[in-house]
Each structure stands twice: as C-alpha cells, then as structure tokens.
Design goal:
Layout (H helix, E strand, L loop, with lengths): L10 H27 L2 E3 L6 E3 L3 H6 L3 H32 L6 H9 L6 H12 L5 H6 L8 H28 L4 H9 L4 H31 L1 H7 L11 H11 L3 H24 L9
Length: 289
C-alpha cells in the first residue's frame, strides 16, 4: 500500500493554522486572561485594574456564601452522579432484554439527551410550577420550587433525567460486549442472577462506568447551569446556587470580574483534582478485557 506524503514541507503546518487559531482565540487566550484577572481587582464600571495578588482567592474562601455553594455543589454532584449511574445501568439492563417493541422503548429513554439544558429546565418548570404545574395538581403540594428544601430536590431529578439518555447509550453498547458464554458457564455452575451480574457483567462494565463517572462529574459541576437558570435561577434563598451559577452571578450580574476569574480557577482546579483522584483510586480497579 502506497503511503501518502506531502511534497511541500510547509503544507501540513498551513493546514493546521485554522485549528491553532481557534485554540489560541477560544481556549489559550481566555485561559490566560482568566488567570491574569484573578490576580487583579477590576472596577465594575471603568474596567480599571489594580494588582491584588491572592486577595481574590483569600476573599473566596472567607466568604460564607461561597462556602455554602461549594458544599452544595459537592452534595449535588455526588447525588447526581450516583443516582444517574445507578438508574441508567438498571434501565440499560432492562433495555438489553429481548422483548417486543424494545427499539421503541430505547428511543423514548434516549431522546432526553437530545434536549438542551434550557429546554429540560422549561419542561420541569412546567411540571412543578406552583400555579399550574401538573405535578402540583396531582400531589396537591405547590411548594416544589418555592421551598428551599424541595427546590434542590427538583433540580437533582431534572439533572439526572437530562443526562440519563447519555449514560444509557454507553451502557447498552457495553452490555453488547459482555460474552454470553461466560454468563452461560456461570449459570451452569450454579451462579444466580445477582452473582452473575456482580462477578461477570459488572466487571465488563467497569471501563464504561469509570468513563461515565468522570463525564458525569464534569456534567454535574459545569453543564447544569442552563437547567438551574431556567428552573430556579439559583433560588429560593440560594438553595440551588451551585458553584457554576455563583460564578455566573458574580461575573454577569454583580460585575465582580477579578473575583469571578478567581472563582473559575477554583472550580476548574476542583474538577481537575476530583478527576485525578478518580484515576488514582477507582481507575486502578477498572478491568479492561
């Protein structure tokens, strides 16, 4: 087979120019500016900058409101990740069965992932709206979105539902790679359904579970902004103001540019740290077949 070669040595670099341009303009430059601004106090109206060193970072971790958002985000992420993976795995196991109309059921359960977070938020706002929400009508309880204790519960349900289709797709694909011969051998040896699942099926699902664990962590910390903005706007009483929404409020509403830049670095470092921790702990228990 003849290998393709570039006659012009500069041509490969010329073809990479659009990619490098996009990376520099939309990734590297904003990242550098975020880091730079985090070290400055920026006037909200004039834009005047004054070097402040670590002042913004110190202010962040001495702010009770930010600490509340930090803890809230951690609890929110843990519940969304664990619930999302558990329910999607169970549903994928059901969808992997040979029953009539299974393709129709798969389509219905996967389509929520195609919706934007804003649309998903609007749907749940319609369901739980105190004035005319369907869930409020059926349950007789109208404080789903006005109670600080129940609002975060609704947001968690919406976040899990929104990402359910994404998780199911990967689990369904992984279940197709579980060797039927291994399951049949275990069944002949007397292993019940529970043992077959934990010792065989789950072992083959571990790479997919680990991948989804990382992706759902990113989703819980970053991708739920649109959902929360449409559904609760961080309220009531800041009960749903997670870190990403706290960052949005400080930058776009309160015009705390330097402070918000420091917040974005803290959030980014947090997610990177959690991801590295996952690779160093759970990643070692993943079995690649």
């Amino acid at each position: 087979m003849k290998q393709s070669t570039f006659n012009n040595k500069l041509l490969p670099y010329f073809l990479l120019v659009p990619t490098f341009f996009i990376l520099v303009v939309f990734l590297f430059y904003p990242a550098f500016e975020t880091f730079r601004l985090s070290l400055y106090k920026v006037h909200p109206w004039s834009g005047a900058e004054k070097f402040a060193g670590l002042y913004n970072f110190i202010k962040i971790f001495t702010n009770a409101d930010y600490i509340h958002s930090f803890i809230l985000s951690a609890v929110f992420a843990i519940i969304v990740i664990s619930s999302g993976l558990l329910f999607s795995m169970l549903i994928a196991l059901l969808l992997n069965q040979k029953i009539a109309g299974i393709r129709f059921y798969r389509t219905l359960l996967i389509w929520p992932y195609a919706l934007s977070p804003a649309i998903a938020g609007a749907l749940f706002n319609f369901l739980f709206n105190p004035a005319n929400g369907l869930v409020c009508f059926l349950t007789g309880y109208r404080s789903w979105l006005t109670s600080s204790k129940m609002a975060i519960f609704v947001v968690i349900i919406a976040a899990v539902w929104k990402n359910l289709g994404y998780n199911i797709i990967f689990y369904l694909t992984a279940l197709r790679n579980v060797p039927s011969a291994a399951l049949e051998s275990a069944s002949i040896d007397g292993a019940g359904p529970v043992k077959r699942f934990f010792y065989i099926t789950f072992a083959f699902l571990s790479p997919t579970t680990f991948f989804l664990f990382v992706m759902n962590t990113i989703y819980a910390y970053f991708a739920c902004f649109g959902l929360i903005d449409v559904l609760t706007e961080g309220g009531p009483a800041d009960s749903t103001k997670v870190l990403i929404y706290h960052l949005y409020k400080d930058f776009f509403v309160n015009s705390k540019i330097g402070y918000a830049a420091a917040e974005s670095l803290v959030l980014f470092s947090l997610v990177v740290g959690v991801t590295v921790l996952q690779f160093r702990t759970a990643g070692k228990k993943v079995h690649y077949q």
